[in-house]
Amino acid sequence: MKHFKFIVFLLVLSCQNDSKKLPVLSYKIDSSGNKAPYSITYSGFTNQLNKPFNSKNIDNKVFVSNFFFTHCPSICPPIRQKLIEVANTFKNDNDFIIISHTIDPENDSIPVLKSYAEATGIPNDKWQFLYADVNKAKAQANQFMTNFRAKKDGTDFYHSSYVSLVDKKQAIRGFYNILVSKEVTRLKGDISILLSE
């Protein structure tokens, strides 16, 4: 009888995990205090292969998004390693991609982004490195509820170690500090949930 109760408990727990719903986080609060939902959109970006990148590229895709620059001396290298881990976890799922936006277009030219992308060992169709002018990059960061700015000495940028998770309908469903192992585990689990929706 004890074994039967334990099996029932495991089945209930399994069903609860399978039915987990992630909240929709892409909304602003309007002047009346109501939620105003929005979808992530793209226009005017170019990827590491010098091809245009727009909203069509994220149709029916689950994706993780972050902001970086290639010569970052601090948090970007460990972030890249964690994103490589995530990319490899979902390497066989055609509905998942990673999108990284440079915040330093002055130095991160298309050839620089291409070289940086190749060094990850992840296929170009799985990981998009996007280039646009700094104003467009800032506007895109605003969609993801983040921001960045250059330090006064020009050697670095203030930017976040958080990544965003977006569903197939272009809604933000989670934020994760990619430098924290538990958050990476949570991110992988949530990606799996969205891929199965």
TrEMBL record:
Q: Which domain of life is it from?
A: Bacteria
Q: Key word Disulfide bond present in the record?
A: yes
Describe the family membership recorded for this protein in Swiss-Prot or TrEMBL: Belongs to the SCO1/2 family.
List residues binding Cu cation. Answer: 72, 76, 159
One Gene Ontology term of the molecular function aspect: metal ion binding
The major lineage groups are: Bacteria, Pseudomonadati, Bacteroidota, Flavobacteriia, Flavobacteriales
Q: Please indicate if the UniProt record lists Transit peptide as a keyword.
A: no
Residues in domain Thioredoxin? 16-171
Its recorded name reads: SCO family protein
Keyword field:
Copper, Disulfide bond, Metal-binding
